[in-house]
Amino acid sequence: MNLFRLFGDLSHLASILILLHKIQTTRSCRGISFKTQALYVTVFVARYLDLFYDWVSLYNFSMKVFFISSSIYILYLMKVRFRPTHDPSIDTFRAEYLVGPCVVLALIFNYKFTFPEVLWSFSIFLESVAILPQLFMLQRTGEAETITTHYLAALGAYRALYIPNWIYRYFSEGVVDPIAVIAGLVQTALYVDFFYVYFTKVLQGQKFELPA
Amino acid sequence: QGTARAKDEL
Known about the structure:
The complex is a heterodimer of chains A (212) and B (10). Chain A has helices spanning 3-26, 34-48, 58-81, 96-108, 115-129, 132-141, 146-173, 178-189, 192-200, and strands at residues 143-144, 175-176, 208-209. Helices cover 71% and strands 3% of the residues of chain A. The longest helix of chain A has 28 residues, at 146-173. Chain A has one domain. In chain A, strands 1-3 form a two-stranded antiparallel sheet. Chain B is elongated, with a radius of gyration of 7 Å. Chain B is built from no helices and one strand. By secondary structure, chain B is mostly beta strands. The interface between A and B is medium-sized, with 23 and 10 residues. Strand 2 of chain A pairs parallel with strand 1 of chain B, so a sheet runs across the interface. Chain A: Its main location: endoplasmic reticulum.
């Protein structure tokens, strides 16, 4: 474990806590894409079911349990508890266009053609694009509550921090995980536009608004 | 040395 990865994981953890806080305090999931959240459940379940048969560490185990359970809880909040505040008519990105290609990519690119390994590859590819319905929704509405932008910033920072972690591991351990690295670069690149507006507007105290 | 999946990463 190095500091980049630790802070990456903590940023990921923080993003989910921010999202939960936003939903609970505003009693609304306005501005949050249900499709993106459903894709995250898919990602976590596909990747972290190994917690039942592969022991890594207590840290690793607890994080996996937290990510699976919190993502399912968020779906519950959106679909049941605060259902009236969710507007499916602006959450129109076709998620199946993401899932299909990720299945195909996972069948081609994996470290071993076994069910758990293909599932792992699939989750890595799907995670890299799972934010697209959310970013698409943001693009459509052209604005976002500040708390939602903090959620997105923490979520984007998480994979971005994994990049120096991979560089560090390459030099310290001599090992590269090309599937994770390439997907991680794509994932981070998707946030570039968002981060530009976040740094130039939100962190200067202005509202997150896209130019018309 | 080489390429491998980092099993300890989340």
